[in-house]
Amino acid sequence: MPPTLKDIASEAGVSPATVSNVINGVQARVSTDTRDRILRIVERHGYVPSASARSLAARSSRIVGLLVPAADKDSLTLSPHTAGVVGTLERALRRHDYHLMLRGIARPAEVTEALRSWNLDGAVLLGFHDADIDRLRRRHVGDVALVAMDAYSDNPLALAVRSDDHAGGRLAARRLLDLGHRRIAFAGPAFSATGVVRQRYEGFRQAFADVGAVWDERLHCVADTTRTAGRDAGLRIAASLPEVTAIVATADALAVGIMEGLAAAGKTVPGDVSIVGYDDADIASFVTPKLTTVAQDLRAKSAVAVRLLLDRLAGRPRPETAVTLEVALIERGTTAPVRRAA
Amino acid sequence: MPPTLKDIASEAGVSPATVSNVINGVQARVSTDTRDRILRIVERHGYVPSASARSLAARSSRIVGLLVPAADKDSLTLSPHTAGVVGTLERALRRHDYHLMLRGIARPAEVTEALRSWNLDGAVLLGFHDADIDRLRRRHVGDVALVAMDAYSDNPLALAVRSDDHAGGRLAARRLLDLGHRRIAFAGPAFSATGVVRQRYEGFRQAFADVGAVWDERLHCVADTTRTAGRDAGLRIAASLPEVTAIVATADALAVGIMEGLAAAGKTVPGDVSIVGYDDADIASFVTPKLTTVAQDLRAKSAVAVRLLLDRLAGRPRPETAVTLEVALIERGTTAPVRRAA
DNA sequence: CTGAAAGCGCTTACAG
DNA sequence: CTGAAAGCGCTTACAG
Question: Whole-model pTM?
Answer without folding.
Answer: 0.88
